Amino acid sequence: MIVKDMSAAVENQRTVEIELVNGHGGADPRKWEDLFLPTPLKLENRLRAQKIEARLSKLMLCGSTLRRVGEVFEKEIEAGLRQQPSSLQMENTYVPELPDGTEEGSFLALDLGGTNFRVLFLELKAGQLLREKVKHYHINDALRLGPGEDLFNFLADCVQDFLVSQSIEKETFSLGFTFSFPMRQHSISSGELITWTKSFNCGGMDGVDVAALLQRCLSARSLDVTVRVLLNDTTGTLVAGAHIDRNVGIGVILGTGSNGCYMERASRVLHWERPHSAVHDVCIDIEWGAFGDNGCLDFLRTEFDDEVDAKSLLAASFTFEKYIGGKYLGDLLTFTLSALARDGLFPADPNFRKLQTSHVSLFEEESCAGEVSRTLSALREACNSDLLSTADALVAQYVAHVISNRAAQLVSVCISTLLKRMDRPYVAVAVDGSVFKHHPRIAKLMNKYIALLAPAHQFSLMIAEDGSGKGSALTAAIAARMATRGVARL
Ligand code: BGC
Which one is catalytic: 209, 233, 305, 309? Predict the structure, then answer.
């Protein structure tokens, strides 16, 4: 589905805005700044509305601040690619080709990144998915926070269980391992974890090659399974998207965590470990979740962000992800409402973790529909209070909108910077992740802000589902195809 085409209204709005940006019709430059503002808070008590808007003003980014973020992002990209100090990893994934419709074979794929771990069997013929079997396994806290060896042994147990359940445990398979964490990759099939993110924090993983560790655990169970590719979920999303539309050049995850990757000119990339003269473009995993970890984005940070960070599993890291990731938007909503409560602008304090990112989506959905009933009952439950009124529900919807608007703007800054950097006539952006799929306005907001920030660049946002599964199998097939052609492993 091409989100761009979902609503003619979005497109029309975009056209008007581009005209304003370009100054057609003698537009006042201040209008451009105004287009970044969230919808104002409308309350009968105008004074309360004004005070709330003022209290949240640091969460509202104007166009020039976003331009500044884009400039910092570009500088960090350059530094990362040159292996100079940068908050962006800019990791070479060693994926130099995208699907061309010749992908063939049966593959296993593992998807590790959220609380559920998936094992998949996928059969590809002429680039199309013929058959797919999937099994989900829950990863409990002890595994997510305990020794890394335990986690990887569990992963191998799950693969064994899956193969036995499909009666294919005696067969030979190539496996694509989607490991959705920052890695230092040494080739398309090897890499070390740099740091855990989201809800994982296993010990004993320093300097450990995660593909080799998985291979060891699989071999210890006498399974004839070879880990052929190790990839990030953004790479899988880009590859899965490129399978649908050849113009895909950027992959984005907007889910529990957030990240992006894109096809970069090989000549601009410094980190190679083998000869690569035949490579024209290569997929770079940006790891933009860590953007700002070196302080370069401190001008954006609010007291609400400080609270989210302080209460997170991995404090003082993954600054940018905490502004946009689904793991954090619910906490941001909670702490912002709590701050309003402290100032007497909201009647109750939500209990910690009672409001989730799904509530941000729900509040936005009701706000779009002009309703409040579900917002009100969710708030009453979260605050353990019956004192909340319709006006309070409108305030909570406004807070949800302000933080959603900022998240959409920040992701859009990254995408628009990449569009300018790639400078192609048209780029399709493959996006996956729960926030993108379930938040009622995020796609529309992103279309608007990307167009405002990169007005000269044509793009579309498309949902590329299951990059971590299908994208992983397709990447394994690409690696097999390159090997058949005699292309040396990068
Ligand atoms: C990880 C990335 C991943 C993203 C989305 C982040 O926390 O560092 O590697 O792509 O989450 O899953």
Answer: 233
> Is any ligand 1 atom within 6 A of the Cβ of residue 326?
no
- DSSP character string of 346-399: SS--PPTTTS-HHHHHHHHHHHHHT--HHHHHHHHHHHT-S---HHHHHHHHHH
Is 118 designated active site?
A: yes
Neighbouring C-alpha atoms within 13 Å toward the C-beta of 404: 29
Ligand 1 contact, 260 CB (< 6 A)? no
Nearest atom in ligand 1 to 198's CA: 7
Token pair 């990362």 is at which residue? Answer: 80
- How far is it, in rounded angstroms, from Cα 62 to Cα 79? 26
Check 174, 180, 190, 367 and give the catalytic one: 180
334 close to ligand 1 (CB < 6 Angstrom):
no
Residue to mutate, 287, 312, 320, ligand 1, most ligand atoms under 8 Å from C-beta: 287
For ligand 1, the distance from its centroid to the CA atom of residue 289, given in whole angstroms, is 7
Task: Check pocket membership of 257 for ligand 1, CB cut-off 6 A.
Answer: yes
pTM of the model: 0.92
Q: Got the DSSP string for 276-292?
A: -TT--EEEEE--GGGTT
Our answer on whether the CB atom of 197 is closer than 6 Å to any ligand 1 atom is: yes
pLDDT tens for the chain, 490 residues long, are: 334 333 333 333 333 344 444 433 345 666 898 899 999 999 999 999 999 999 999 999 999 999 999 999 999 999 999 999 999 999 999 999 999 999 999 999 999 997 789 999 999 999 889 999 999 999 999 999 999 999 999 999 999 999 999 999 999 999 999 999 999 999 999 999 999 999 999 999 989 999 999 999 999 999 999 999 999 999 999 999 999 999 999 999 999 999 999 999 999 998 888 888 888 999 999 999 999 999 999 999 999 999 999 999 999 999 999 999 999 999 999 999 999 999 999 999 999 999 999 999 999 999 999 999 999 999 999 999 998 999 999 999 999 999 999 999 999 999 999 999 999 999 999 999 999 999 999 999 999 999 999 999 999 999 998 888 999 999 999 998 888 887 777 7
State how far the Cα of 453 lies from the Cα of 416, in Å rounded to an integer.
6
